Amino acid sequence: MEGRRQYHSRVREASAQRTRELIRDAASTLFVRDGYVSATVKQIADSAGVANRTVFTAFPGGKLEIFEAALAAALDADEVPLGAPNLASDPDDVRRIVSQIVAQGIGLLERAGALMMVAVESSGADADMRRLSEESSDQSAVNAMSIAEGLSEHGLLRPEISLEKAAGILAAFVSPQLHQQLRRVSGWDVDAYRGWLEFNIRQNLMY
Hints:
The protein is an all-alpha fold and 207 residues long.
């Protein structure tokens, strides 16, 4: 009997998780299409094909909890930490390092950039979105400074470029705002976007 109860418990947990993912993914589409403020729980429920009460059972925190779950899922991926070895004397090695930086940034933005922009665009009308937008901006600044420090430590930054300036340039190049402008508004394909970023990071920071 104990084994049967555990089996049924696992089945219920798996079913609840599938429902959460269904609601989360439906909401993510609505958030990107209509904006956070305009999307309603009823629209999310209808899009997911569930009842309103099911949405609140799965996400007691309502729309904010759903958005945070959607953003967390989009951000979640196994990334290889950036390592900038002391290979600045070889242009091919510099290009490889820049390519690695850009690949990490593009990977994140392709997964989560649209939702990050939802927070940015909704920040004027919603305090929670403003908080999330500021947290995302702060984290981007920390990441950019970490990369800039790594490049500097290995002699890959031009000597006249300060760490603060390098971090600012990196944060701007891999921002969700620029990603949206080039990928969604201007319609660049990902290869053109990647090539532009790699070229401009090298030109502005390295040589």
